[in-house]
Amino acid sequence: MVDRIDPLDITNIKALSTWMKTQNWRNIAKLEPCRFKDSGRGMRTRKGLEAGQLLVQIPRLLLMTAGGFRSSKEWSWLVDKNLSCHDALVLYLLVEKNKRDSSFFHAYIKTLPEEFSMPTDLGNEMICMLPTFIAMKFQDKIKSLQDSFKKVARGYKNICIKELGFCEFKWAYYVVNTRAVHITGSSGKFNADSSDCMALVPFLDLLNHTHDTSCISGFNPDTNCYEIETLSKTPKCSEVFINYGPHDNLSLFVEYGFLIPRNPNNCLPLEMTDFISACNEYDVKLSNLCLQTISLHNLMKNLGLFTDGPSWSVKALLKVLSCDWSSLMRIEDIIYRDFENQGLTEKTLLNCILDKKKGEVCDSLSAIAKDKSCLVTNCIVSFLEECLSIIEFSYAN
Ligand SMILES: C[S@@+](CC[C@H](N)C(=O)[O-])C[C@H]1O[C@@H](n2cnc3c(N)ncnc32)[C@H](O)[C@@H]1O
Known about the structure:
single chain, alpha+beta, Beta-clip-like, 3 domains, five-stranded mixed sheet, 14 helices, 13% strand, binds S-adenosylmethionine
């Protein structure tokens, strides 16, 4: 379903394409921005696309990287400041935006969204209504946003000789977080060698995500361009998607501010503490041998409920927790025992964990349903409903 794109966007995107053409860019896959009912502003193709075809080929000169600071007098000061590549790019974007139409990237900056609806903007009152596994993820992201603000604001004051407002900062942070690509693998620290490792890529960043497609992307030194090749077919006049990675909905929501309905990568994470409290509740004794085995075999990792039921680690951990450690057994005999033939204890422990998670999610749903006032809370409600169906499925599987 396609909608007309607003006139201001059309003007800005025409100006973007004119500017990019001056740097030898060509729209090789005949992509055009459109507004779609489900995914918002994205790209459609005016011709059918085959697997193996290039979607975009963006010349190096058009890539915005913090390496752009290289010719400035602040360069040596910046490389000493122990910034991350992410924060350095946020700072670079703010400095370029501040230059208005004298920035080389002015036409690009005009095409960026003016506002973002992100879960990190939720107040504490709302976060307290959420189940712990969601609240913790939001709080971690809020903390990294605030840490980043302190560092970027220091750099901004030094370069632009004025204070940076938190809202202005958040805009740039969200632009980089939701749109930047990684060019080369690096430690993530900004220094003279890694300054070009993250980039904002004009035009390419108008492509939306779906888990249903695959593509290959990266900088091609032979063409000196950042390229994306699609590995899927797209019919003429349909939306062209790329794949941002195998993200579950909680990660998509926290990092990009959106959800994919019926996302097959969905997962409800579990913690070791969920298992310990279920054991305490049912008086299951945890011997030293049992705890050592869990640690030795890394069974506290990858604990989660997926769309096809509990993860392998959850099943293995339940078996180890509920086996009789007084009679000597080989760990392989315990872990690889068929989960379907589980004993009463495993089933009891799993149901206890699921009941608790279900209770947390249901309490949160009824508290939030009273305040379905904005896009973010609507997304949270959809996400919680998906969590409920994952939990229900796990009871049976
Ligand atoms: C790289 S940008 C893609 C273009 C963006 N939609 C725009 O208007 O500029 C990434 C952002 O697009 C949105 N997005 C991407 N894929 C989406 C999808 N399948 N459904 C809804 N929103 C999506 C999210 O807001 C995400 O943070």
